[in-house]
From TrEMBL, chain A:
<dbReference type="InterPro" id="IPR027417">
    <property type="entry name" value="P-loop_NTPase"/>
</dbReference>
<keyword id="KW-0472">Membrane</keyword>
<dbReference type="InterPro" id="IPR003593">
    <property type="entry name" value="AAA+_ATPase"/>
</dbReference>
<comment type="subunit">
    <text>Homodimer. Forms a membrane-associated complex with FtsX.</text>
</comment>
<dbReference type="GO" id="GO:0005524">
    <property type="term" value="F:ATP binding"/>
</dbReference>
<dbReference type="GO" id="GO:0051301">
    <property type="term" value="P:cell division"/>
</dbReference>
<keyword id="KW-1003">Cell membrane</keyword>
<dbReference type="InterPro" id="IPR005286">
    <property type="entry name" value="Cell_div_FtsE"/>
</dbReference>
<feature type="domain" description="ABC transporter">
    <location>
        <begin position="2"/>
        <end position="228"/>
    </location>
</feature>
UniProtKB/TrEMBL annotation, chain B:
<dbReference type="GO" id="GO:0005886">
    <property type="term" value="C:plasma membrane"/>
</dbReference>
<keyword id="KW-0132">Cell division</keyword>
<feature type="transmembrane region" description="Helical">
    <location>
        <begin position="167"/>
        <end position="191"/>
    </location>
</feature>
<keyword id="KW-0131">Cell cycle</keyword>
<feature type="transmembrane region" description="Helical">
    <location>
        <begin position="212"/>
        <end position="239"/>
    </location>
</feature>
<feature type="transmembrane region" description="Helical">
    <location>
        <begin position="21"/>
        <end position="46"/>
    </location>
</feature>
<protein>
    <recommendedName>
        <fullName>Cell division protein FtsX</fullName>
    </recommendedName>
</protein>
<dbReference type="Pfam" id="PF18075">
    <property type="entry name" value="FtsX_ECD"/>
</dbReference>
<dbReference type="Pfam" id="PF02687">
    <property type="entry name" value="FtsX"/>
</dbReference>
Length: 228, 290
């Protein structure tokens, strides 16, 4: 379970990214965090991965306060979380297979195990035939699915996706989110997706948290992205 | 094994930096080997000279055996000598005859009266030659003192200078190697910035991220020291006849293979330590993980 208790995040330049956020996300939920650019969506995700700390309030992951996690234990927290980054963060000099294998290498898994797990996850995102390609040889949707494969290969409890449909055409965007939905359903992975893609949010009918100016303005169980 | 494979893969990606670092290490440890061998060689020459009689005191004809024995006791009492040998006129004649047995002309009409009795003195430390010479010379029954004092002094001085020069020179080269390793590994950290950031975000520990850089530093050291040891071995093998000819009766060759193994092991351990410490400094300075 993820809990935000009166969380405020203020950056050193004075910008307030999040203000007095109270939020509870149960295990296995699929949530859309929506809102215009600069609403605080990415900051919210970064607080979960402990890339940043709240200025006030607390973030609890499985009842553990992220502020109290010692530096040496942060990797253990991050191993529970898979992240699909807004800018993909794929390594351009590594193949699809090698990129997806990174989280397993970090866990010091055996080569044979890595080979099996990566192949299985590439099949899940329909990229097995592109395993030996480099990121520059992939289409936008394939790059995005590679990033998803990397995020889920170590079977995280929580999957964060920051604008995963950013520059994709509507059909590809929908396919990418279908993959995420499948992972959420099959593996019971908690899925938090930050997006401002109206069509996607309205199509999938999941819990929607609307952020504006760093504050939660709406939190609906089967919400819609109302841009008004 | 996987880690070593990964490290080698990283080296292949930017071979020129790796080459620069390995060459700096090779140069450092090649020069270090030369100095080590010079210092050890100097010590062998010094030991050779120290083990031979370094002071020979020849006595006047009227010096009696008891007077000579008295001087002998006086010298021994200083505790600075290794051996004091009394050579009587008769023994001196026997030595003379032995040395010149192939030249009958020199042996003709030579009797023990022509040759003086002497004391052959070897000292424990070459530095004490002057003091013993002084004691011997001050005795009125001594006619002449022969000593290679200057040669030994020169040798001691040279050995000290080589040792000191070696320390200064090797320290300078080691510092340069350190800086090159810090620079090369710093560049590699910068080149792998994205990868490090991704690894950190997927749960890599600091040690997991740092380990290949430590291995890389150690590898530069090991490769450098191994090449240097091989070069010095080949150099000595090739030039051993010339060096032996120069040293004359002082036996230095063949050098035991064990010496080269020890030299390589010592240098490899030092070089690996230099590489690892260099990597640690680079990591401390440049590795920023959120």
């Amino acid at each position: 379970m993820i809990q935000f208790e009166q969380v405020t995040k203020k950056y050193p330049n004075g910008q307030i990214a999040l203000e007095d956020i109270n939020l509870k996300i149960d295990d296995g939920q699929f949530i859309f965090i929506v809102g215009p650019s600069g609403a605080g969506k990415s900051s919210l995700l970064k607080l979960i991965t402990r890339e940043i700390l709240p200025t006030s309030g607390q973030v609890l992951i499985n009842a553990e306060n992220t502020r109290q996690i010692p530096e040496s234990k942060i990797p253990l927290l991050r191993r529970k979380i898979g992240t699909v980054f807004q800018d993909f963060k794929l390594l351009i000099n590594r193949t699809v297979f090698e990129n997806v294998a990174v989280p397993l290498e970090v866990l010091s898994r055996k080569d044979s195990e890595i080979e099996k797990e990566v192949a299985s996850v590439l099949e899940k995102v329909s990229l097995l035939d592109k395993a030996d390609n480099f990121p520059v040889q992939l289409s936008g949707g394939e790059v995005q699915r590679t990033a998803i494969a990397r995020a889920i290969v170590a079977r995280p409890q929580i999957l964060l996706a920051d604008e995963p449909t950013g520059d994709l055409d509507p059909q590809t965007a929908r396919d990418v989110v279908k993959v995420l939905e499948k992972i959420n359903k099959e593996d019971k992975t908690t899925l938090i997706m930050a997006t401002h893609n109206v069509q996607i949010v309205n199509h999938f009918k999941k819990r929607v948290i609307f952020l504006k100016g760093g504050k939660i303005v709406k939190d609906e169980k089967e919400g819609k992205y109302d841009t008004d | 094994m996987t880690q070593i494979k990964k490290t080698l893969k990283l080296l292949r990606r930017s071979p020129y930096q790796a080459l620069a670092a390995a060459l700096a290490m090779t140069l450092t440890f090649f020069v270090a080997s030369i100095f080590v061998i010079l210092v050890i060689g100097g010590q062998i020459v010094l030991n050779y000279i120290e083990q031979r009689p370094q002071i020979v005191a020849f006595f006047k004809d009227d010096a009696s055996q008891s007077q000579i024995r008295q001087i002998e006791e006086q010298i021994k009492a200083t505790g600075l000598t290794r051996e004091v040998k009394y050579v009587t006129k008769e023994e001196a004649l026997a030595i003379y005859r032995e040395r010149n047995k192939d030249e009958p002309l020199l042996l003709e009409s030579v009797s023990s009266d022509f040759l003086p009795a002497s004391l052959d003195i070897s000292v424990k430390r070459a530095q004490d030659i002057a003091q013993i010479t002084q004691i011997v010379k001050s005795n009125q029954k001594v006619e002449k003192v022969v000593t290679p004092e200057n040669l030994v002094e020169q040798l001691v001085k040279w050995t000290k200078t080589i040792r000191l020069g070696g320390i200064v020179f090797i320290s300078t080269l080691l510092s340069v190697s350190f800086l090159i390793i810090i620079m090369v590994i710093g560049m590699r950290i910068a080149l792998r910035r994205d990868e490090i950031s991704i690894m950190s975000l997927v749960g890599a520990t600091r040690w997991y991220i740092a380990r290949p850089f430590f291995l890389e530093g150690a590898l530069y050291g090991l490769v450098g020291a191994t090449i240097a040891s091989f070069l010095i071995y080949a150099f000595l093998l090739y030039y051993s006849p010339n060096i032996q000819e120069f040293l004359g009766p002082i036996q230095v060759f063949p050098i035991s293979p064990r010496f080269f193994i020890y030299l390589w092991a010592g240098e490899a351990a030092t070089a690996a330590a230099v590489g690892i410490i260099g990597a640690a400094i680079a990591l401390f300075r440049y590795l920023k993980i959120r």
